Amino acid sequence: MISVNDLRRGHVIKLDGDLYTVMEQQHHKPGKGGAIVRVKMRSVKKGNVIDRTYNAGVQVEDVRLEKRPMQYLYREGDSVVFMDTENYDQEHIPVGAIGDALRFMKEEDIVNIAMYEGEPVTIEPPAAVVLKVTYAEPGLRGDTATNVRKPVKVETGAEVKVPLFVNEGDFIKINTESGEYIERVKM
What we know:
Blueprint: E1 2-3, E2 12-15, E3 18-28, E4 36-43, E5 49-55, E6 59-62, E7 66-76, E8 79-84, E9 90-94, H1 95-98, E10 110-116, E11 119-124, E12 128-136, E13 149-154, E14 159-163, E15 171-175, E16 181-185
Antiparallel strand pairs: 1-6, 2-3, 2-6, 3-4, 4-5, 7-8, 7-10, 8-9, 10-11, 12-13, 12-15, 13-14, 15-16
């Protein structure tokens, strides 16, 4: 058991017999009355998002996960195929369980897959990835003083907002958690 006060992004808990991944947690202390905790969670199996409000200090069932490094092979219909890097077993994981992490993953990338009772539950991609910009409107020289952003497409097909000086063919570092541009990288 774990207190809702201790929940953080990425925790997996068991609620009503289903597994949920914590997406957001807010601790709120109103002017009068006790503190409350608002938790936004995604169902591991179904992919739907729910919001729950708890009184501070309430206990929920914590789930211990085994993490294994696996290689992203390819997408097949509504699932993604990963290969265990130790014994070469392949796992089919539903796209709904992966979430937004798939937008920034290339084939052959290594990620940590959390397993619960032998079943894949969630994916932990690296904190940041470097991807090549495949489409960008031309930038104007000297446009670095403003905080204006333009959308570009990267090699995985994801769209990212970047500063105006980023051009097609550049490599950029992207935060996989928020999907935000971090910096341009020289390759």
